[in-house]
Amino acid sequence: MRHGSIPPVLGLLALLLGFGPAVADELAAWSALRAGGYVALMRHGDAPGGAGDPPGFRLEDCSTQRDLSERGRAQSRAVGEKFKAERIAIAKVLSSPWCRCMETARLMDLGAAEVAPAFSNSFALREQRSSLADAARLIIAGWKGPGTLMVVTHGANIDALTNYNPAQAELVVVRTRANGTLGELGRIPAPER
Hints:
It is built from 6 helices and 6 strands.
């Protein structure tokens, strides 16, 4: 268990029923999302080719970037289907302007994605990593709901906010605590597709 992130009753119930900590963590994430007022940080779907983008990539030209694979497209659709099946109210969708993030957001079909420069690829924009994280924290701190804020971004960005670098198509559910720090409520693993 991390930082007491799993509600005690839910965590205890999951452990008593024989589920491991990862399942209890996922249950806590879904529970938080159902309650509303939380932020789901999602790393884009599978985009082969390592980290970053090819040399000379241009943000306005998707053909110069790492794009989603067929697996990444299937993952994106599966995440959207799961959110609908779980009846999670998505109030707003924000996305990095990178094409793999925008395509992930579009394929999830949870609402029109707005480009949010604060969630731009901090791996590619290393010199701006700190200012991007500060801007992202402000957006997250300002989110009160109703519903969930879905953010599609990059692993390096989520790592800068949570000290955890998720797998492609994995989600981390967060909320700003009363003391102003970012608290992680749980993680939802990438779909098996």
